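Lab notes, practical 5.
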Amino acid sequence: MDLLISGGRLVSGGRADVLVDGGRILAVGLFPGARADEVIDAAGLIVAPGLVDSHRHVGQAPLRGIGADMTLTDYITTVLGRLLPAYEPEDAHHATLLGAAEALDAGITTVLDFCNVTRTPEHTDAVLAAYRTAGIRAVVGHNNPADAADVRRMAGLRGRITGALAINGPGFGDWAGTVREIELGRELGLLVTMHAGGGPGSPLRRLYDEGLLGPHLHMVHVNGLSGEEAKLLAETGTGVTVTPIVEATMGHGVSAYSTFAAAGGRAGLGVDVTVNAPADLFEALRDTLRSHRAATGTMHPAAGILAAATSDSAAAIGLADRIGTISPGRRADLILLDGLAHLPDGPGLASAVVTVLGPRDVHTVVVDGRILKRDGELVHLDPHRLRQAGSGPPTR
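Output from the prediction step:
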């Protein structure tokens, strides 16, 4: 057996050991006398599934903080139009490594990277190499569907790094092109992820009418979502992710989380961009709890929101059978959280994780059974040094 997490407190309540072998959770329970190549003493720590960021532009990490007052138009012009096209492959590598390090440090074990920097095969190679070095689980959304050959090789990725197709959608191109791109993703068995809004002018009804919605498609934001549109997404099993911090900061509109939930859907959570948002999901969890309580007029249990950043995010990006819960057979993507040793066991632990914890409380991070953060420090990556080393072109 490779790893034993001993004596931890499960976020769902109760104390347990977690046995890990071959990167997979072997068993969860009490196993006195169990041995492993590596043992983590988790006494006083909370054992939780690794957080899943189901929408993030990881390569924009070097641009942290430059867009506090940017409108969406400003962002498109400055970041997408000028800064990212200046990335050379080595910039893409360093930027991705920095973004992955910041995510891991915050307890995020999986990212769906809507990767704006896959301009050439060399850029794609650089991004994939960064993920291999970082050790984070990544679904890499190739954002250059015009290069079909480069997109096709994403379908061959297996294991901790898998591929997806990130498309701009009809809001930034023509309808026929969007359909071709969705069909390309279907042909290759790749998840297709795209930004979209709801309400008047939304493409959601047309996508449904043309049989294009479904689990192969992942919709991000959908601010302005109507109840009818939410039902279409939920009934077809289309993945949905909201990014409430960026959506509010940039004026996209009210989060669609509650509207989608009312239709029976379960949205995942994403950081989106760090040009104007923190690199963790704790603030997004709290914002979602507050807005959902306001929208429903209820004291919705805080513990119920944690799934948005774990199992629901995993499901939204097609990984529900691999990650998101602490269950035998799932990949061993786990985090240990500190700061709540004074609380009794029970569901109150998950509520407290949502309402009071932050990145500094992430004690240990395990991805695919490999320890990437120990005792509050990343094992082989240093975000501060990566940022000091410089990554990407100048921000001005």
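Observations recorded by the TA: Residues 80 and 116 are 8 Å apart (CA to CA). Residues 89-105 form the longest helix (17 residues).
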